[in-house]
Amino acid sequence: MKLKNILIVVKDIEKSKQFYHDLFGLDVVLDQDGNMILTEGLVLQDEKIWKSFLKREIIPQNNSCELYFEEPDLEGFAERLERLYPDIHYVNRLMTHSWGQKVIRFYDLDGNLIEVGTPV
Fold first, then answer.
1. Same-fold call for 1-58 versus 61-120
2. Could you report the per-residue pLDDT of 61-75, keeping only the tens digit for each?
3. What CATH number has the domain spanning 1-58?
4. pTM for the complete prediction?
5. Could you say which architecture CATH assigns to the domain 61-120?
6. Any idea where the VOC domain is (predicted)?
């Protein structure tokens, strides 16, 4: 068995597609009317579809998981994030952990937690 994809719920799939392309260079692999697979295995699913499956409300910024990316030029990434998405909600801006890794944490447009760090 192997893990195939990670699925996140989004309100506006087109805005989310642009967000993940702008910041992480992810492109569309497959678009199936409310389900979109991006490169690296990230799946965007329209909130209405997810709610119909679960029969429950979506809880943004629930802090129960995160998408983790590595980027050697974290300062450049932080500048791009601020320029393209100045209203983004940060958990922490660029910081350095005690072990030397630089990280930045923020929520995507739908409250999904993202961490970007320098390679470890």
1. yes
2. 999 999 999 999 999
3. 3.10.180.10
4. 0.94
5. Roll (3.10)
6. 2-119
